[in-house]
User: What shape does this take?
Amino acid sequence: MAIARWDPFQELNLITNRMNRLFQGAYSPASAEENLTTTTFVPPVDIYEDEHNITLKVEVPGIDQKDVDVRLENNTLTVRGERKFEKEEKEENFHRVERRYGSFYRAFTLPNTVDTDSVTADYDSGVLRIKLAKKAEAKPKQIKIGIGQKTLEAKGKAA
Assistant: This one.
């Protein structure tokens, strides 16, 4: 069961952004800080399921809790936020900048088995954990299997 919305243009957007950064650096006089803060990034997400919950773990280190927005609307869970570039250090002192800065947006279509009134989110050590409780009727139930004539006899007595 996949609850992630597949975007066929996501890879194309990533390639386009990389090409734009390549040419911006070579042909535009923009400042280094502007180049660092205008890119977007896609935080990695782990999604797993057990019999009671569907859980999403979004990796967003270095982002304050107040800079992350989680919303649930029309069976779509959206997570958006922004990692801001620290202006305390001077850009010319950097030897390498590999962390991504800027805004991000992730959207997930939820199955009908999710109880939208029982969604919780917590943030700890750079990981946002979103728990989506399943509806009671969606949880697996154990069904006893009768053996041959005994099941038929029980049905006949009940009627």
User: Anything to note?
Assistant: The radius of gyration is 24 Å. The chain has one domain: 10-136. Residues 28-38 have pLDDT under 50 and may be disordered. Residues 10-136 form a domain with the Immunoglobulin-like fold (CATH 2.60.40.790).
